[in-house]
Structure formats: structure tokens, C-alpha cells
Design brief:
The complex is a heterodimer of chains A (333) and B (294).
Chain A: H1 2-6, H2 11-27, H3 32-55, H4 63-80, H5 89-113, H6 118-138, E1 148-149, H7 151-190, H8 193-203, H9 205-210, H10 215-242, E2 244-245, H11 247-250, H12 253-266, H13 273-291, H14 296-310, H15 314-323
Antiparallel strand pairs in A: 1-2
Helix pairs in contact in A: 2-3, 2-7, 3-7, 3-10, 3-12, 3-13, 4-5, 4-10, 5-10, 7-10, 8-10, 12-13, 12-15
Chain B: H1 2-34, H2 41-58, H3 63-84, H4 94-116, E1 129-131, E2 136-138, H5 139-161, H6 163-173, H7 175-180, H8 185-207, H9 220-233, H10 239-260, H11 268-286
Antiparallel strand pairs in B: 1-2
Classes of the chains: A mainly alpha (333), B mainly alpha (294).
């Protein structure tokens, strides 16, 4: 019994970090906004890392899932808010639609793109993202490039008070939940058959196949999990919170790159990495936006390059090396 | 009527396609030699566009002069980025090289914004126009097309006839084999990266002929994505394949636009862009080695 629990020890620092963030945001006035931003980056990093960390595949089009999640929630609110008796069920429908759209695209992508490797996979993922975006704009689906604005519908269905609470607290709170869920699933996969199979894939895919591992199945599981979590973040942090969606705002590769930066800062393929990376990235972005608005990217770009060259294993990678052989080792993964 | 329109637009597409082809050769060369997909590719095209704009508006020099300047500046940028960043990432996982090249792109965008501002700009190279029965074409576009063909041909002969060009082809084919044959692979990596970036910046000069008021620090992203489609169409590792794929892509793009514009109730421009990516997707699925590949 002790063994099964101790397998999950590395989750302790992760959950502790989320709890501390939540407490700081909840009890210190004026901090919620910043903590919500940090949780957003941690959740995205953690979700992206599930697939990348375990398989080594770089999903450069990950933002597709976030965007489709946003669209799911937007569709749910736009079309179902007229049925007032549904109450909070409207949001449930929105979330279900978000997950449905994301799983549809994840399965399609998995079916096609996961046969490709390396650079071809990254290009295919970017292609899917852009193809979807311009298809929505071109065929004028879901409002085309004008997008959907449903804040009014939300107001009508729930009233001003509730909407205020939903957008300023519950949307961010659910991002915390998703972040924690992502960490748990990541840990669970790492310690189960899926994790071992995917480690084999990462080290040598052909050898894994020859050994009889159904690589496609395990890759698809990890891909789907990662995509669904991303869709959840999109539905809550963009759809519900903002009350509008435009294709040009959500299908933006820059957000995938932010996920990658978060993961790489913390340590790719580690459990604690995305949390540390999310904190560092979120805090510095917040801070830079305050002290020198408009120049964040100019400062970030060289920093990213320096980190890639100087410390590609990230903070957790360095930490792991320092703590090797000590009692603390089992808490870091 | 529609056929005249289609023929006219296809002519424009062919001319643009030549520049697309040249703009993608650099991407393919870099992927072929150091196995890195340059996600910041389009931003180097943007650099070329700004070089042309600056030389034209402040110094009054014609874009023809900008071509060698862009090549030299591009190669300098290429060597700089190679020796500071890319050299360490050649054997690294894709994660790092993709992110590094993307960061380079952002850096170039932000520097351009700092210098030139974020407005859309343009210039007018008045060299007259030529009237065909089907359409009227500005001569600047014709010159850009001729320029790209000349550069591509020059490159072709350089690759096939010179020692250095042969060495580059050998490294694309098999870098260990090339090392055994006494090729200085490290230098070939650096040189190919620099030539790749130089070509890309140079293609930015020619591209300005097609975008009268489209020069902007953030113009590059769209070209990166088009270059991906073209590069895959051409087989991803072959610069010549990329050039022909560029011609095909230009034709498809303008032809599809003309046809989509006939469908009521859709926005033809984004639909054309999306078609390109569905094409990419389909190609990766059925023939990842490219149209001209084995």
C-alpha cells in the first residue's frame, strides 16, 4: 500500500504550489487577477506537457484545442442561453461541446498526423490549426471572421450578479481545477502502463513497435488527454471569461509557443516543471507589461534563445541533479 | 469572360509563384542540411522587404540594387544566428530548434517594429506596365519573376557544378558519408544556413513588387506558413523541388481564389488560404516526399 501512495509523492509539491497560489489570490486583495494568469499558464503548460513530455512529439498546433474549446463554450452559451430553465446546465452543455469539438479534432489529427514524425508532425499540426482558422473565416461558419459575441446572452440567462461572479471567480477557479487534474493525470500516466509504453516510444519508436507495443493507441490516449485539458482551459479562461470569440484571436500559434516556453523554462517532461515555468513566465510577463508595456516580446525573445542554449533541461532538470541521492529526491519528478 | 479572368489571374499567380519558389528554397536548404524547420522563416522575408523599402525611400535606389545588399545582409544574419544559436541545436530534439527559430522570428519582428513602427508601408517602383490580351501586368512583377528565375538557375548551377555546391548536396544526402570523404561538415552547416537565410531575405526584395502597401513588421507569419506548404509540396529537403512547387502553389492559389470568388456567401480569400493547408495535410498523408519526390 505504501508503495502505491509513495508513487504519487511528486504530486505533493505541485498541489502545494497550486494551493498556495489559490490562497494568495483568494485572501489577498487585488492579487486574484495575477494568480489567475499564473494558473492559466500553469494549466496550459501542464496539459501540453502530458503529450510532449511523454512522447517527445512537439505539437506546434496545440492552440487548436484551446480555440475549439473556446468555440464549444461560445456555441453552448449562444445557442442554449435562450432556455433559461437550463440554468447552470448551459455551461455544462458548453463544456461538453468544447470537449466534443476538441476530441473530434484530436482523433482526426491523431489518425492523420501521428503517423508523421519530427518536423513533419510539427508542420502538420500548424497546418491543421491554420486550415481550421481560415476555413471558419472563409466559409463563414460560426460568424466567420466576425466571430461570436455572447456576453449579452450570458447576462440575460444568469443576471448581472451571477455573470460577474462567473467571469471573475469561477472561470479562473476552474482553470485551477484543470491544472490540478492535468498534474494528476500526468502523474498517473507516468506511473502506469501508458507511461512505460510512451517512454519506449520516446526512446525508440521502431523498437517499441517491434516489441509489440501498440504505439498508436498510447500516443492517441496521451494526445487526446492533452487536447481535452487544453479545450477545458479554453472554454473557461477564454470562452466563459471573455464572452466573445474571434478566429483571429484564438487560433494563434503564439499561444502554443507560450506553452512551450512555460514547459521549457520549468523542465520538459517533468511534473513540477510546468508549474515552475508557469510561475516564472507568468510573473515576468505580468511584471514586464507593467514596467515597459509593448516591449515584452523584444525582451522575451533573446531570453528564450539564451535559455535554450544555456539550460535546455530547465529549472527542474537542474534541481533534480542537485537533489540526486537526497531524501527530497522522491518529491521531484 | 470567366476564362479570361481565370487566365489573367493564373498569369499573376505564375509570376508570384516564382517568387514563392525562391522564398522557399532557403527553408528547404536549411531543413535538408541541418534538419531544422525554420519557424521564423517569414520574418527573414520581412527583413528583405524593409531593406528594399528603406533603400528605395531614403536613398532612392532601385530594388535591383537591394538584391545583393539583401543577400549580404541575410548571409551575415545567417552566420550570426548560426554561430550564436543554431550550432548548438543541430542534434537537439525538435522542441528546442523549433522554439529557437520562432524566437529569432519574434526578435526580428520586434526590432523591425522598434525601428520602423507597426504601420503598413509601401513604395511604388514606376517601371511601367505591359498589356496582354487577358490582363495588364506591372513590369515590376515581370522583373521580379525574371529575377527569381535567374537566381534559382544560378543556384542550380552553383550546386551542380562547383565543389562547394557538391559538398552541400553530399551533406544533404548523407552527412556521415560526406565527413568520411573529407567534407568539413561544420563549415557546410554554417554556410548552408547562411545561404538559406540570404536567399530568403533576397526573396523578400522581390516579394515587395507584389505587395504595394503590405510591408509591415508582422507580415512574415503568413509567408512562413505558405513556405511550409510549398516546401512539403516540393519534398522538404530539395531546393529545386521547392522552386517548382512555388510555381505550382502560385497557380493554385490564384486559380482557387478566382473560383472561390464565384461562390456566393463565402469569403474567398481566407478560403483560399485554408485550401492551401488542407492540401498540405493531404500531401503529408499520401506523399510526404513531395510531388517531385521518389
Amino acid at each position: 500500500m505504501k508503495n502505491t501512495i509513495s508513487k504519487y509523492y511528486p504530486l505533493i509539491p505541485v498541489f502545494a504550489a497550486y494551493l498556495i497560489m489559490f490562497i494568495i489570490g483568494f485572501f489577498m486583495p487585488g492579487m486574484w487577477q495575477m494568480v489567475a494568469l499564473l494558473a492559466f499558464y500553469c494549466a496550459l503548460g501542464q496539459s501540453w506537457n502530458i503529450f510532449m513530455g511523454m512522447t517527445g512529439y512537439v505539437d506546434f498546433g496545440y492552440v487548436t484545442f484551446i480555440a475549439l474549446g473556446t468555440y464549444g463554450m461560445s456555441l453552448g452559451i449562444s445557442y442554449f442561453s435562450q432556455f433559461e430553465w437550463l440554468g447552470i446546465g448551459i455551461l455544462v452543455i458548453g463544456l461538453i461541446l468544447a470537449l466534443f469539438l476538441a476530441s473530434l479534432s484530436a482523433l482526426l489529427e491523431a489518425f492523420i498526423a501521428l503517423r508523421l514524425r519530427g518536423a513533419y508532425f510539427a508542420i502538420a499540426c500548424i497546418g491543421i490549426n491554420e486550415g481550421l482558422r481560415y476555413f471558419i473565416e472563409g466559409a463563414k461558419i460560426w460568424g466567420g471572421s466576425e466571430g461570436m459575441i455572447f456576453f449579452g446572452a450570458l447576462m440575460q440567462a444568469f443576471g448581472k450578479e451571477t455573470v460577474n461572479q462567473l467571469t471573475t471567480f469561477w472561470a479562473d477557479f476552474s482553470v485551477f481545477i484543470i491544472a490540478a487534474l492535468a498534474a494528476f493525470l500526468n502523474m498517473h500516466y507516468m506511473r502506469s502502463k501508458i507511461g512505460y509504453a510512451l517512454t519506449a516510444v520516446r526512446e525508440d519508436e521502431d523498437a517499441a513497435k517491434v516489441m509489440g507495443i501498440n504505439t498508436t493507441k498510447y500516443k492517441t490516449i496521451a494526445f487526446l488527454t492533452s487536447g481535452l485539458l487544453g479545450a477545458g482551459v479554453g472554454a473557461m479562461a477564454w470562452g466563459l471569461k471573455l464572452g466573445h470569440v474571434y478566429p483571429g484571436d484564438v487560433f494563434v500559434i503564439h499561444y502554443t509557443v507560450e506553452c512551450i516556453v512555460v514547459v521549457l523554462l520549468g523542465g520538459a517532461g517533468t511534473l513540477l516543471g510546468p508549474v515552475i515555468g508557469g510561475l516564472i513566465y507568468g510573473l515576468s510577463k505580468y511584471w514586464l507589461a507593467v514596467i515597459m508595456p509593448g516591449f515584452q516580446l523584444l525582451i522575451f525573445a533573446p531570453i528564450i534563445i539564451i535559455i535554450i542554449v544555456a539550460a535546455p533541461e530547465g529549472v527542474v532538470g537542474l534541481l533534480k541533479r542537485r537533489l540526486k541521492g537526497t531524501q527530497l529526491e522522491m518529491f521531484i519528478e | 469572360m470567366i476564362f479570361t479572368l481565370l487566365a489573367g489571374n493564373l498569369t499573376h499567380g505564375l509570376l508570384l509563384g516564382g517568387v514563392y519558389g525562391l522564398a522557399t528554397m532557403g527553408l528547404s536548404l536549411i531543413f535538408g542540411v541541418i534538419n531544422v524547420v525554420n519557424v521564423g522563416h517569414g520574418q527573414f522575408i520581412m527583413v528583405g522587404a524593409f531593406v528594399t523599402l528603406t533603400m528605395f525611400t531614403t536613398l532612392g535606389l532601385s530594388p535591383v540594387v537591394s538584391i545583393p545588399v539583401a543577400l549580404i545582409l541575410g548571409m551575415a544574419l545567417g552566420f550570426f544566428f548560426f554561430y550564436t544559436v543554431m550550432r548548438r541545436l543541430i542534434r537537439a530534439p525538435e522542441l528546442t530548434s523549433l522554439l529557437a527559430t520562432f524566437a529569432m522570428g519574434i526578435l526580428l519582428e520586434e526590432i523591425a517594429k522598434l525601428i520602423f513602427g507597426a504601420d503598413f508601408r509601401g513604395y511604388n517602383w514606376g517601371v511601367g506596365r505591359i498589356t496582354l490580351p487577358i490582363t495588364t501586368i506591372p513590369m515590376s512583377k515581370v522583373y521580379a519573376f525574371i529575377g527569381s528565375i535567374v537566381i534559382a538557375l544560378f543556384l542550380y548551377f552553383w550546386f551542380s557544378k562547383t565543389r562547394l555546391g557538391t559538398a552541400i548536396r553530399a551533406v544533404i544526402e548523407d552527412n556521415e558519408g560526406a565527413t568520411v570523404c573529407g567534407v568539413n561538415v561544420g563549415w557546410i552547416y554554417a554556410l548552408s544556413f547562411a545561404i538559406g537565410i540570404g536567399l530568403t531575405v533576397m526573396s523578400g526584395v522581390l516579394l515587395t513588387m507584389f505587395i504595394p502597401v503590405g510591408i509591415n513588421p508582422y507580415m512574415g507569419g503568413g509567408y512562413t506558413l505558405k513556405a511550409f506548404v510549398i516546401a512539403v509540396l516540393g519534398g522538404l529537403t530539395s531546393p529545386y523541388g521547392a522552386f517548382f512547387a512555388g510555381l505550382i502553389f502560385g497557380l493554385i492559389e490564384n486559380g482557387a481564389y478566382t473560383l472561390f470568388a464565384l461562390i456566393p456567401g463565402v469569403a474567398p480569400f481566407p478560403l483560399t488560404v485554408s485550401l492551401a493547408f488542407w492540401m498540405l495535410f493531404f500531401l503529408l498523408l499520401v506523399k510526404p516526399t513531395g510531388l517531385l519526390g521518389k
